[in-house]
Amino acid sequence: MSDGGFAPTPTPPYHVVIFTSQRSAHDDAGYAAAAAQMDALTRKVPGLLGIESARGADGLGITVCYRDREAAITGWRQQLDHAQAQRRGDTVWYTHYELRVARVERAYGGPPA
Amino acid sequence: MSDGGFAPTPTPPYHVVIFTSQRSAHDDAGYAAAAAQMDALTRKVPGLLGIESARGADGLGITVCYRDREAAITGWRQQLDHAQAQRRGDTVWYTHYELRVARVERAYGGPPA
Predict the structure, then answer these.
(1) Model ipTM?
(2) Contact B100/A9, CB-based, under 8 Å?
(3) How far is the first Cα of chain B from the last one, in angstroms, to the nearest whole number?
């Protein structure tokens, strides 16, 4: 779930979903397939600004998904829940996750030129 | 900048700083020293709830720092800026970074038991 770098976000305000997850050591193939499906679902919901994602060697990952409207997040989450329930995957792929929905109020880029 | 896992955050609302950065290939030793200094500064500012951090093999990293009060974030950022300017580091260690300040409004943990 990455565009391979930084999300091209506008001047705030906008919205963000922060998904922190600890991968289990199980079912890499199933996880990869599901991640591709979740990525496709994520991109289908209107208002996507961009995605940033990193996962370290310890299996802890953080994905941030920026959106221009808050309303779309609930629908997107319901779709994700449904897709994951169909696959019964999240209890296999993740030992734990936290999903937080926030409103971005300020932003700065760098380093200074 | 990690507690080695998930931040123990309370029921929202609370605040978050999302720091996305692309490490350069330069000066690992200087970066490690500065990261330790930034981590110490981050923990000194009142209201820290927790830190989550991941960096992938491609050098893209995301650190999220949760705080119980928004006011502390400005002072913390000024301290970080000052510390980084003293070391002239951020132009060496990062090819780019984005820092976003947001207010967490909803949160969910999983997988479901």
Answers:
(1) 0.87
(2) yes
(3) 30
Contact (Cβ atoms closer than 8 angstroms) between residue B68 and residue B14: yes
pLDDT digits (tens, 9 = 90+) for A20-58: 999 988 888 888 888 888 888 888 888 889 999 999 999
Quote the pTM value.
Answer: 0.88
Element (H, E) at A37: helix A28-44
**pLDDT tens for residues B12-47?**
999 999 999 999 888 888 888 888 888 888 888 888
- Which of B14, B18, B103 is best to mutate for the A interface (most A CBs within 10 A)? B18
The reply to whether omega before A46 is within 30° of 0 (cis) is no
Domains of chain B, first to last: 14-104 (3.30.70.100)
CA dihedral for A28, A91, A73, B101, sign (positive or negative): negative
> Inter-chain contact B53–A62, Cβ cutoff 8 Å?
yes
